[in-house]
Design brief:
elongated; 5 domains; single chain; Helix Hairpins; Methyltransferase, Cobalt-precorrin-4 Transmethylase, Domain 2; alpha/beta
């Protein structure tokens, strides 16, 4: 007993292979996945053609349809007879029933023979005038729309098959717009390989405003950039080239330690761009920070330490492990506090599994963080386990207490100690106010910079130097600067 799977091509009857035609001609019963295909009316006369079209109306989704089709085919083959199953295109391209059939028949010791046919790929490439070996990507529309972000290398073209309805086309469009601009050029290929073939070039935002059918394929063209790449993989190649023998002498000699100050500097420049609310500046600075990360990764590759794939695999697994309410069965009832409690419990278990059960709750916070940010992180961790004042008033009282102790301090050592305590409890108070003290101080620094710069500029316009001005005169300019900046928003 054998299931013979026959590919009947993309739609032109003349493209059915001689082998497929001979098998169909010599068979009494042929089981079609669907009759909705241009080649079906032109198949050999003689066999009785059965189809599974009724299942599409009864089932909730394609997975259920495919499972039922496979069950019926296996049942027929179990009776000891050969079963001929005909599918559009090639059996091994975009045919979920065939891959499932191969797996089930393998477990049940039922033979499967695949008769290949022309798929939609070859006539699509011909219609586009593209060589498929140049990095073409193949995706199924129904699988594609289950992702929030398109799993496509934007430097390469992609064929998205079976865009069979306007609703599906709309879902595909929305997914693509997470990576591509609204007016990115795409092409709808209708009925490729048939006499009704039609090629329709259009911008991405219009693709769900056109008629589509089960024989519609979407082609997403590569990003056209002026000298740069758009994909992460392409950027890794750029960095690897820089560190190659044919690359840059400076990049070749860099180590993790030599790159360390650049990583810190770029991270702070990203923060500055965020604070400025300048999207273009943020895009640029995030790129500079990414450059440092990929450089460290390439140094590690060159030293045989680890690869970018290791970095991504590790952090992706950690994210999914620490979000069981997203990728598991844990119910946090939409409460962020429950999320943080679970997060700490999971981290504690991870430490225990790694033989680090005695570590402090505060471990893992970088010792190199700016002191105010570090104080905020220490306080956040301690508060998660209930080490906190019962009310905000307790924090305010503690601020006053620490201020009094600072005022009473006599020696430099005492003052250093007390002002540190005051700063720490101010950081705690900021948490109670749902503020990040580092952000608050950074904003205050920025305001001081802007006001002082205006004072300097105004003094210059007056032909005066700040060094020769009295405090009262500078205070007048300071208040003018405050009013001007407040008026400017």
């Amino acid at each position: 007993m054998t299931v013979i799977v026959v590919g009947i091509g993309p739609g032109d009857p003349g493209q059915v292979t001689r082998q497929a035609w001979d098998i169909l001609s010599q068979t009494q019963d042929v089981y079609l996945r669907t009759r909705v295909h241009p080649t079906v009316p032109h198949l050999p006369v003689g066999p009785v053609y059965h189809s599974f079209d009724d299942l599409y109306e009864q089932a909730d989704d394609f997975a259920q349809v495919y499972e039922t089709i496979v069950d019926r085919l296996v049942m027929l083959a179990s009776d000891g007879q050969d079963v001929v199953y005909a599918v559009p295109g090639d059996p091994m391209v975009g045919e979920g029933t065939v891959t499932r059939l191969l797996a089930v028949c393998g477990m049940k010791d039922i033979g499967v023979r695949v008769i290949h046919g022309l798929s939609f790929i070859e006539p699509s490439l011909a219609a586009l005038g593209i060589d498929g070996i140049a990095g073409m990507q193949l995706l199924d529309a129904t699988d594609f729309v289950t992702a929030y972000h398109p799993q496509i290398n934007p430097d390469r073209g992609a064929l998205v098959a079976q865009v069979y309805s306007r609703q599906l086309a709309s879902d595909v469009k929305l997914t693509l717009m997470n990576q591509y601009p609204d007016d990115h050029p795409v092409t709808l290929l209708h009925g490729v390989g048939t006499t009704e073939q039609r090629v329709e070039a259009l911008p991405l935002y219009e693709m769900d405003r056109r008629s589509v059918s089960p024989l519609t394929t979407l082609y997403v063209s590569p990003f056209e950039t002026s000298g740069g790449v758009s994909s992460f993989e392409g950027f890794q190649e750029t960095i690897a080239h820089l560190r190659s023998p044919d690359g840059c002498p400076w990049d070749r000699e860099q180590t993790h330690q030599s790159l360390r100050p650049h990583l810190i500097e770029e991270a702070y420049e990203v923060l500055e761009a965020i604070d400025s609310e300048d999207a273009c500046k943020m895009r640029e600075e995030l790129g500079d920070l990414l450059l440092q990360i990929v450089l460290h990764s390439q140094v590690a590759v060159d030293e045989g330490e680890f690869s970018m794939a290791d970095i991504i695999r590790h952090v992706d697994a950690k994210l999914k492990r620490r979000h069981p309410h997203v990728w598991g069965g844990v119910d946090v009832q939409g409460d962020p506090t429950r999320v943080m409690v679970n997060w700490e419990q999971i981290k504690a278990k991870e430490r225990a599994d790694n033989g680090q059960s005695e570590r402090s709750l505060l471990d893992g916070i970088p010792k190199t963080l700016p002191a105010l940010a570090q104080a905020h992180e220490y306080d956040e961790r301690a508060a998660r386990v209930g080490f906190d004042w019962p009310s905000e008033q307790g924090v305010i009282d503690k601020v006053r207490e620490e201020l009094d102790e600072l005022l009473e301090a006599v020696t430099p050592e005492e003052r250093l100690h007390e002002i540190g305590d005051l700063l720490f409890v101010i950081a705690v108070w900021a948490r109670w106010l749902k503020l990040n003290p580092e952000d608050a101080l950074r904003a205050a620094n920025r305001r001081f910079y802007e006001r002082f710069a205006l004072v300097e500029r105004r003094a210059g316009q007056m032909g005066r130097s700040l060094r020769e001005m009295s405090l009262e005169e500078m205070d007048v300019l300071w208040n003018e600067a405050k009013r001007q900046l407040n008026a400017d928003g």
